[in-house]
Amino acid sequence: TAGTITGTTNIDPLPSWNEGPLKTNILNFVTESIDSSGENFITVEDRVAVFDNDGTLWSEQPVYFQFFFAMDQVRGMAATHPAWSKTEPYKSVINHDLKSLMAQGEKGLMKILGTSHSGMTSTEFENMVTKWIDTAVHPLEKKKYKDLVFLPMIELIRFLQDHDYTVYIVSGGETAFMRPWVTEAYGIPRDRVIGSNLKLEFQWQGDEPVLMRLPAVEFNDDGVGKPMSIDRIIGRKPVAAFGNSDGDLPMLQWTASNPKYKSLMMIVHHTDSTREFAYDRESKIGRLDKALDWAKEHQWYLMDMQKDWKVVYKP
Amino acid sequence: TAGTITGTTNIDPLPSWNEGPLKTNILNFVTESIDSSGENFITVEDRVAVFDNDGTLWSEQPVYFQFFFAMDQVRGMAATHPAWSKTEPYKSVINHDLKSLMAQGEKGLMKILGTSHSGMTSTEFENMVTKWIDTAVHPLEKKKYKDLVFLPMIELIRFLQDHDYTVYIVSGGETAFMRPWVTEAYGIPRDRVIGSNLKLEFQWQGDEPVLMRLPAVEFNDDGVGKPMSIDRIIGRKPVAAFGNSDGDLPMLQWTASNPKYKSLMMIVHHTDSTREFAYDRESKIGRLDKALDWAKEHQWYLMDMQKDWKVVYKP
Ligand SMILES: [Ca+2]
Ligand SMILES: [Ca+2]
User: Based on C-alpha coordinates, what's the Rg of chain A?
Assistant: First the structure.
């Protein structure tokens, strides 16, 4: 493995990152971790890196993209549900009135999520997501959602994988929503996606067993849920963790407590209102407040989108 | 990959299996699956095989070995809990009176499981299991539990892995109980172990984050739970599934419904009272009744331990 980095030293593995201490630190961390003669060597099986998704690998404003998916599904179903044009919260969704929908609080949002995410089989849902991600466009950015992924982070994933890191997504979003497209978007295989889950029911449709998606959350993979799912599914403490909000703090703390290795904790700080969005402590979506204090106190790395990223989105 | 099998045709990959139609069928399935010019070719990423653990990869009589572990832990704790010598269900455990314990029904068993499995951190539990598996001995077989693994199945796992199959354990036993020893015992890595789970709680012990194990089941990975966890964690329908009881039937049915590939469903039939144990339809542990009928009706393969296995345990 030591040969790998030697062979690539002349090619910048992170071309979308501006030169500076942050980039140098990432390069040094990985270089040291594969040097079997150094004190910071990490065995291949322990090279586990975890990435949050929303706000870390792609944008998440003005609402999580999975919620745009939910609203698009409801609008697609509206023709066969004529009563919705007069019934909230569907009416606001059909009228593209996000403000009015938000004003209805969590109950309205849950109804939209339930209607769009349950009552179909896991296979049917996968097909819905695949169709949506291939065609749907973000209302503000006017780009496909799958093009609103952060190129610097994709380079970082690839750089880690090229040095025998096993890279997982550990997200509050639903596993079944991410799985259909993350391989193409990020180069992360289907079985390395950990997220929230709905309850399922094993049913027969004629001779065919199916998993029916029920309108109930089985596991919420956010906050303290993240170290739990890491322990349950990966079974190793990561050596590197990347997030962007308070919901990632326990995952970052868990990684920082790795007893065997020096670990790498990094937070995407959304500082770029021109190229993306600027938000942190006061944001409803992707609030970065406690984790920002903690990061500063513990010398974790803040990726300042404006300063550190030469490019934001894939061109 | 086609070269792999050519290079090994002279060496029997399944030496502990008797010659016969069953062994031939296994060899043919794998050989065809890696032949990219044939109609039964399976792409590498779809080569997913799932194995039940108790009764499929190691023995499970007279009770699941995880329950022997539980009783051993309780006995180890007895010195610091003097009242237990007069209190059921602990008294029966301390006296090695399995019959009296069983007579107390599920409530007694749950108490023993709760006492032995919760109230410690995930790391502490891992250490308990590691210590136990390295030393504990089966009361009837007079061998270490880790030596009561089925050599023919280990050869089969290795054979599949050698042909780029990704092999998972999908067991009703607890993930955290299997993970510490399955790599040494079966050659299956830690992150390919799917099982039942206890609820966890993220806590701080001083500066150290820990996951505390709570006395409550979060997910029961048995019966219909198996296709659910396969869908949630693997995200692909298997092409091969191996089990031994009615609790594996939904997993086998799920695998049989693979829409893209010819799949392989096999059941270990415990027919050998001399070398192991003989049981099926009437057994409390590992009951094989509905799945036996279903297997016969659907021409799934029954591995007849007495006839098909030249060797049972690792020598
Ligand atoms: Ca996030
Ligand atoms: Ca079993």
Answer: 20
CA B154 to chain centre: 12
Q: How far is Cα A146 from Cα A125, in angstroms, rounded to an integer? A: 18
Identify the CATH assignment for A2-62+145-308 out of 3.40.50.1110, 3.40.50.1000, 3.30.1120.10, 3.30.465.10. Answer: 3.40.50.1000
- pLDDT tens digits along B196-222: 999 999 999 999 999 999 999 999 999
CB count within 10 Å of CB B180 equals 22
In 3-state terms, chain A is what percent helix, strand and coil (to 5)? Answer: 45, 20, 35
Question: What's the mean pLDDT in A100-107?
Answer: 90
CA–centroid distance, B194 to ligand 2, in Å, is 13
- For residue A78, the distance in angstroms to the closest alpha carbon of chain B comes to 29
Task: Work out how many CB contacts closer than 8 A connect A with B.
Answer: 69
Q: pLDDT tens digit string along A171-222?
A: 999 999 999 999 999 999 999 999 999 999 999 999 999 999 999 999 999 9
Residue-wise pLDDT tens digits, B54-102? 999 999 999 999 999 999 999 999 999 999 999 999 999 999 999 999 8
**Interface pTM, i.e. ipTM:** 0.94
User: What stretch(es) of chain A map to CATH 3.40.50.1000?
Assistant: 2-62+145-308
**Whole-number mean pLDDT of chain B?**
95
- B202, B224, B232 member nearest A224 (Cβ): B202
Per the prediction, chain A carries an average pLDDT of: 95
> In 3-state terms, what secondary structure has residue A74?
helix
CB atoms B200 and A254 under 8 Å: no
Separation CA A276–CA A312 (nearest Å): 8
Residue of B nearest to A189 (CA): B45
Model confidence, pTM: 0.95
The answer for B 20-49 residues in CB contact with A (under 8 A) is 45
Chain B partners of A201 at a C-beta cutoff of 8 Å? 224
Question: By the CB < 8 Å criterion, does B220 face chain A?
Answer: no
A134: Cβ–Cβ under 8 A, 6 or more apart, which residues? Answer: A144, A146
CA angle centred on B191, ends B188 and B195, rounded to 5°: 90
Minimum CA–CA partner of A48 in chain B: B191
Please check whether the domain covering B2-62+144-308 is classified as CATH 3.40.50.1000.
yes
pLDDT of residue A314: 85
DSSP H or E segment with residue A72: helix A65-77
Distance of alpha carbon B60 from alpha carbon B47, whole angstroms: 28
**Quick one: pLDDT at residue A106?**
87
State whether the Cα torsion B293-B295-B301-B305 is positive or negative. Answer: negative
